[in-house]
Amino acid sequence: MVAGRLIGIARRPARRAPMEELSIGSISIEGGLDGDHKGAKFPRRRITVLSREAWDLALADLTDLAGRVPLPWTYRRANLFVEGVRLPRALGGVVQIGDVVLEVTYPTQPCSRMDEAHPGLLKALHPDWRGGITCAVQRSGVVRIGDPVKVLVSPPEKKIRLPG
Question: Is residue 87 over pLDDT 80?
Fold first, then answer.
């Protein structure tokens, strides 16, 4: 089993608030990432995870005459940013980050806020689950930058057509 690592943690304390980056975060079954306004509201959408590899592919689609568009990963508004592991692309996938265990409930569906960050970002995030995964929390715990990331269950890949 190939392990990746956690390279970013972020939360939004309120709707439309800027993302706050953290070096450590507590994640619970009941509320998602402590201090994130959205996690407690949606049981099957407690945590969102984005991979660096998927983010880089999306940004490559935004390359213009000036070259690569340098957007920070927090523009995607995900809670966790990982690298070195291919996230499951099917519902029911299970990912462990440090001691926390997450179950994939949906592909993350990027919203129009992405185009507010940069024109074309919404479209660039749509193919192949590039927007990341949305998860329910199966086991609570604390995550830290550098924690290992392992895919415990990866069901057969599902092609899901997102709007847009």
Answer: yes
Ordered structural domains, the chain, with CATH: 4-153 (2.40.33.20)
Angle 158-73-123 (CA atoms, 0-180°, nearest 5)?
50
Residue 60 sits at φ, ψ, to 5 deg, of -60, -30
120: left (phi over 0), alpha (psi -120 to 50) or beta: left
**Structure tokens that stand for 69 in this block:** 């568009």
Q: What's the pTM value of the predicted model, to 2 decimals? A: 0.90
Q: How many CB atoms lie within 10 A of CB 52?
A: 17
- Which two three-digit tokens encode residue 15? 């709707």
Q: What would you report as the CA-atom Rg of the chain, rounded to the nearest whole angstrom?
A: 15
Q: Residue 118: which of 129, 127, 110 has the closest Cα?
A: 110
What is the Cα–Cα distance from 126 to 138, expressed in whole angstroms? Answer: 26
